[in-house]
Specification:
Structural class: alpha/beta
Shape: globular
CATH superfamily: Peptidase C15, pyroglutamyl peptidase I-like
Number of helices: 5
Strand content: 15-25%
CATH architecture: 3-Layer(aba) Sandwich
Order of helices and strands: EHEHEEEEHEHEH
């Protein structure tokens, strides 16, 4: 594992040609597919954080209702009543017993959305406050809880409705780069404040 300046762990539900596109050379990208199962999420997501200690985790999920590439602002702890692919649902109907109701990402999704839209990618990007109370939301909250907000979730439409894998790959690459830039700026600001005091 190289001593990269930035380490990005990408958890995806479908491969949108990100491996082929690549990111900046100083970014280590790790791609995982997460099964649609509550119990797997509860064990896999913490183990990935422990293994990589990434600067950022970006989750990508396909939503049949999405018509744009959608940046999720927050994850929610309660309301998980839908059965997963193993016909299982948590008895508590929540992600983390005793955890806060809602956790926001440290990344300002509105800024990311504006910047990517202004870059003229040809892919519509929007922001959402509700990731859906199913495995996507469950995964996002779990990751936000573990990372103290250093996570993001992007919902994408199904392939071809209307965007191709290449379109979505380009959009994801641009979005992730903006997220990393925002994180870098925030860390530089904190570093300067510490140094000043």
């Amino acid at each position: 594992f190289s001593n990269a300046e930035e380490i990005l762990l990408e958890i995806v539900f479908e491969d949108f040609e990100l491996k082929k596109l690549g990111l900046e050379s100083e970014v280590d990208l790790h791609v995982y597919e997460v099964p649609v199962e509550y119990q797997t999420v509860q064990s896999l997501v913490p183990s990935l954080w422990k293994q990589y200690h990434p600067q950022l985790v970006v989750h990508v999920g396909v939503s049949g209702m999405a018509t744009t590439v959608t940046l999720e602002k927050c994850g929610r702890n309660h309301g998980y009543k839908g059965l997963d692919n193993s016909s299982f649902c948590p008895d508590s109907q929540c992600c983390i017993v005793g955890g806060p109701d809602c956790i926001d990402s440290v990344i300002d999704m509105e800024i990311v959305c504006k910047r990517v839209t202004a870059s003229g990618l040809g892919v519509a990007v929007s922001v959402s406050k509700d990731a859906g109370r199913y495995l996507c939301d469950f995964t996002y909250y779990t990751s936000l809880y573990l990372s103290h907000g250093r996570s993001a979730f992007i919902h994408v439409p199904p392939l071809g409705k209307p965007y191709s894998g290449e379109d979505l790959g380009r959009a994801l690459k641009a979005i992730i780069q903006e997220m990393l830039d925002l994180l870098d700026q925030a860390e530089e600001k904190i570093h300067c404040q510490q140094h000043f005091h």
